[in-house]
Each structure stands twice: as C-alpha cells, then as structure tokens.
C-alpha cells in the first residue's frame, strides 16, 4: 500500500473534492471518526466542514492544519470495503491519528 500525505490549509477544498465524488457515486463514505452520523447517512460538504471547524479552531497558530491522506493499495489487491476500512483504521491508529476526526471515503474510478 502506498500512502500519500498532504498538508493543506484549505479544509473545505479537500472536503468538497471528496463530496463531489460521493455525489457522482464515484465514492462512498465508509468510515467516520469523531464526526456524528446523520439520519439516513446523508452528508454534505457544509456538514463535514462544520464538524471539522471545531477541531481546526483549536489550531489557529498552525499554518497548515489539514492532513489529507490518500491510501492506495496495489491494483492487484482486491479488498472489500470492509477490509479496506479495517486497513485504514489500523493505519490511522499506528500513525497516531486515532483520536482525530476522520472522514474516509473509498474513491472508485
């Protein structure tokens, strides 16, 4: 698995990119951490942005507050959504992000 870790200052841009993929059914939200579920699991970029704002406001002295992590398994690996979610949870835990808010989507090309 290859991990690409980006540092950004624009949370809304990262959320909007993800949400547009979900809205076009090219991605699905598989896992949330420290973000409340909504009724019927319907989400919007504005909802996620509001959820993350609470955490970002605590880091006002940090220039790039957003970590955007893309985990990319080998194309030969055929992991189910459940298996991929487990891999992501383990990765985030080992990286020390288990107590952070997490939005994980599986983007399908």
From TrEMBL:
Pfam family, one: Relaxase
Superkingdom, taxonomy of origin: Bacteria
Span of domain MobA/VirD2-like nuclease: 44-99
Cross-referenced InterPro entries: Endonuclease_MobA/VirD2
Name of the protein in its database record: MobA/VirD2-like nuclease domain-containing protein
Record lineage: Bacteria, Pseudomonadati, Bacteroidota, Flavobacteriia, Flavobacteriales
């Amino acid at each position: 698995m290859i991990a690409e870790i980006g540092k950004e200052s624009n949370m809304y841009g990262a959320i909007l990119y993800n949400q547009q993929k979900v809205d076009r059914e090219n991605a699905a939200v598989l896992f949330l951490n420290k973000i409340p579920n909504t009724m019927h699991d319907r989400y919007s970029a504005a909802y996620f942005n509001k959820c993350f704002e609470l955490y970002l406001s605590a880091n006002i002295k940090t220039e790039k507050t957003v970590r955007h992590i893309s985990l990319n398994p080998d194309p030969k690996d055929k992991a189910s959504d459940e298996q991929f979610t487990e891999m992501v949870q383990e990765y985030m835990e080992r990286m020390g992000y288990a107590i952070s808010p997490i939005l994980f989507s599986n983007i399908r090309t």
